[in-house]
Amino acid sequence: RKFGSHRFLHLNISKKVWKGDVIDIIDRHKDRPLWVCGRRYGFLWCKATKSPQCYVFFAEVGIGIEKDEEITSDKVREWCAPPKFNCDLSIGKEQKRIKLSFSKTTPSGTLPKNCLEVVPDIRCSKDLVMTDGCGLISQDGLDFVWRSCMKYIQSREAEYAEKQNTKVPSQCDKTLCDNDIDGDGDGCEENSDNGLSENNSCPYTSFQGRIGGFKGMWVLDDRLDDGIKVVCRDSQKKINFPMRSLMSFSDDCKETGVDVVDADYDSFYDTVDVCSWDKHSKEGRLSRRIIQILEYRGVDVDFFRKCADDGTKWLCRLHEDSNSLLEYISKRHMEMTKRHSNNNSDIFHDNILFRMASAKMDINEPIYAQKILQLVKKEADTMREKGRYPLRKCKQMRLIPDHTQILKEGEAFIAVGYPNGKTDQKNVEKYDYIVTLRSPAYFGGDLLKLKLVNKRTLRSRCVDLEKSKGVPSVNKICSLYDGPYNDPFRFFDGLHTGLVINSRGERSAADMMSGGDYDGDEAWVCWDKQLCRLVQDHPAQDTSTNEFIVKKSHHEKVLASRVSLKQRAEFALHYRYHQTQLGKLSTALDSAMDQFGVDSPESIAVATQAFLQVDHPYKLCEMKQDHYCELMEVFHTSPHWRGEQVTCRSYVSEKVLGVLYDYVQGKIDSLVTVCNDPEKRNTRLNPHIMSIINTARQKGLNDFVIERKLSQLQTKMKSAINEFYSEYKKLRATLKDDNEYTEGIMKEWMKYQHYKWRKELIDSEDGEDAKNLASAILYEETWRKSIESSFQGEYKVSSSCVSDRLFATSVLF
């Protein structure tokens, strides 16, 4: 937004490209600069940990850039990380800090002067940070950010509508379009079910984003009374910017001897950039790693079977209840359209199925039943291969530290309200314990079991503290707490949604969950009584030992101000295998946990390397030689529940994931048996399709031309079906192996067949009536062949080419 998005050129470079060529593109000599489309580009920064890597170049001069707008990429890099205020910034830290400037956010207002204060983090007795990444904000401050965010989104929509010469949506429509700003870390989306309230107050109580050089979460604290007040923790400060909103900035500069001038300041440094609002908690589901750890912690297979039953109940409903089917397909169709999926084949088949459901076809009609079966099998396979079984009383929630320290060690508080005022708070507070886990998880101790505290207990504790004068005076550490009220309960009572974890003890609970923090991390949370009762206690993995300490290399510690472009390129290239290594370690950990156990020495060896690979991507963490020999089998074999055929490189697992995989397969097989029941296959054709044919046959009794036309159409359709099936058999014979590659080829071939046969058999007819008659006869002949032939599924497929034509005119049904 500072320089204009049109000046940034993103170049994705595969890891297969020779390093020398990459360096040559970046480190250009002055006599041969990089010119693209009339603009000279200089290298700025690299999204090094992505795959493929993305190298960002900046347009310094050229077409469309005014003289006073010309600036070098080096100056832009200095604006992103000012060396004047960050003299000790290393290239490793600069790489991370500039990344903040390229994250997808929504600008949400420029903070006024002296409204932001930095305070120390809460620390434990071992001096470990307990509030890492989470600050506080007043209600007026939150409302200001919210209104500014909405104004930006609405102005952008209005500008887009003007360019497209379309009508700007009404305020009611914009309420539905603009208010969903949950981007899950990928920027604010403009969809929502909640509009701006009449007084323009923020319907949420926290947001993730960045403010100048600070990043993380900011949570509403009603103890910060009137006015725009923002409290940042020391742990949130990632880089120094000249900020007018920062109360201590002038004093900090005097202490360090830095001379600040007006030209150093920039309103962009004081802008609040919102990444996502808290909204309401998402429904939680199981996953493969969660199931593995829960099994290790004492949860039996019968509990998981119930979850699998809940996840497959809809399989039966799809064939028993047309309304349930239409509801499910409609929802799926909307999600596919909203996501703009890159899989055109999926969208193609979903569109046909959606039209069939909307037309209220007989659910036992052969073609329709076949497509439903394909959908069910695909959804069931996805669920069991990823272990995404539903679980009651389960949410995906943001982690928030207890800034009041009212919660005791091992305790937690859940807020489950919604922006529209509804809440499940009373229902949740009936339970005594929760189990929670952050992804990715690596060790058996990453799953925490915490005691759940309700509002009544919190209120009682606050009253007792007030009576004993035990409430800590927060204004001693933060001058923004200048109001007469310092009731800690206000922090909990004003919170809409989130998992608040105690900030007492010897280690942060978020850190216990595979090294998490509070800068926007989410956790899987479940308060189901049966599950909590089954989960056994287990100590968290100690990540402070020597095995988890990685010394930074000399290259990472070099000052950013002293590196050349060639060194920057070499530094970025060191990350190019990071994602590949992560994938290998994740797959190996799945197999190690399945073969040897979750906390076996073999699994811990792999898990440690995976844990370090995430936190230290510069250093490719590899297995030590003594472990590698022992784990050769893990790296080259995998359990069958990963979706691979059982071969010499895979095996049938007897663990819970393997049992569930086979259990769901049995349900799929039983459904296939029902669908292939002869009584189902002999279901009569759609009445309206038959009425089109019968009407034409009735006319043919008295008209020889019509009778001959019908006979020609039947012969033409039979010939087309035989030709289709002949080509189908040839293709299947060529593609002997069943894998994702051959499946993709078959889908594309079928898509081509759809358009080919529609054009030759349907669109070639003159007039709507003739096209409808041709469609109906092709449909009838396809159905007849599917009944007569032993290759029912193959012939059924060919009829999909007419479905688009049949459903284009609603009167056909």
Question: What are the salient characteristics of this protein?
Answer:
single chain, 813 residues, alpha+beta, six-stranded mixed beta barrel, disordered C terminus
Please describe what this structure looks like:
- With 813 residues, the chain is of the alpha+beta class.
- It is 46% helix and 14% strand.
- It contains 30 helices and 20 strands.
- The strands form four sheets. Strands 5-11-8-9-7-10-6 form a seven-stranded mixed beta sheet, with helices on one face.
- Strand 2 and strand 3 (39-47) form a beta hairpin.
- Helix 25 (687-700) packs across helix 28 (768-788) and helix 26 (704-734) packs across helix 28.
- The radius of gyration is 31 Å and the shape is globular.
Summarize the structure.
The protein is α+β, with helices and mostly antiparallel strands.
Write the layout of secondary structure elements.
Blueprint (H helix, E strand, L loop, with lengths): L7 E6 L5 H8 L7 E3 L2 E9 L5 E10 L10 H8 L10 H11 L4 E5 L5 E4 L14 E4 L1 H25 L7 H8 L27 E6 L2 E7 L9 E4 L15 H8 L14 E7 L4 E4 L2 H9 L4 H20 L1 H18 L4 H15 L7 H21 L3 E12 L9 E6 L8 H4 L4 E5 L10 E5 L2 H13 L21 H5 L3 E5 L7 H4 L9 E5 L2 H6 L19 H4 L7 H9 L4 H19 L4 H15 L9 H6 L1 H5 L1 E2 L10 E2 L4 H20 L2 H4 L5 H14 L3 H31 L5 H23 L5 H21 L3 H7 L1 H9 L5
Parallel strand pairs: 6-10, 7-9, 13-17, 14-16, 19-20
Antiparallel strand pairs: 1-4, 2-3, 3-4, 5-11, 7-10, 8-9, 8-11, 12-13, 13-18, 14-17, 15-16, 15-18
